[in-house]
Amino acid sequence: TMSLFKKKVFVLVGADSELGHELVCHLSVNGARLVLGGEKRLRLDASVSEAMRLGGEAISAPMDMTKKEDYENLILQARAAFGNIDYLILNTDPSTSFCPLFADWNGFTSIDRVLSRHLTLPVYAIQLCLPFLMKRSGCIMAFSHSSSNDPHPCTNALQGFLKGLQDEFQASKANNVHILSVTIGDMKADSKSEAGLVASSAVRALATRTATLRMDSQWSVVARRCFRSFYPKWLCGLLCCRCRRAGAKKVQ
Questions:
Q1: Using CA atoms, how far apart are residues 221 and 90, in angstroms rounded to an integer?
Q2: How far is it, in rounded angstroms, from Cα 112 to Cα 119?
Q3: Who's near 194: CB < 8 A, 6+ residues apart?
Q4: Is a pLDDT exceeding 60 seen at residue 237?
Q5: What angle do CA 22, 122, 28 make, to 5 degrees?
Q6: pTM here?
């Protein structure tokens, strides 16, 4: 992937998380140019330093992820620093920040704030980047965290939009922008080791232009393997039909 990503420009929204930092590391060793957006300035600055150390180029763009103007500024900074945009990575799932239960939302203000952060403004980022991505045969990658232990009504909101957008792109046959949806199951993306595994698999999926990627925790994999060692294959298939093997489940 070294030659594939060398000098390519990545706009990464939500770069201030552990997963964001691991993505920075994996892309930097491949010579990527990175524009890092997020709310934690110190973490962004640390990621910029690490990117430079690993052989990439990076700038930080601290932002309020509920403000339209900050998304616009993020794209302007990317264009000013590197000229083009080849990849847009959205790590804006509800798990990346505190998000109250729906029962605790207080009127339309809460609805507007939550949806702006996790759906409306990420979609706006896609709209802002799309003209540049179309010129470069670029890619949009978005993460969602579908843990059954921490459900949230916004978890799959962006993924649902991207599925419809992908269908529209395929129907028009005039758009060469690729969309990759990464679903993280019960993995702890705030854990360095598991975030590193997710980032590594996601970067490989980008290189092969996979359409979807499903990640499961190692504990889930161990449990399924033990289950399969005691029960017939047909029964395992019936009861575990929704399970995925470790690492990646790809759908081209």
A1: 27
A2: 10
A3: 187, 188, 217, 218
A4: no
A5: 25
A6: 0.82
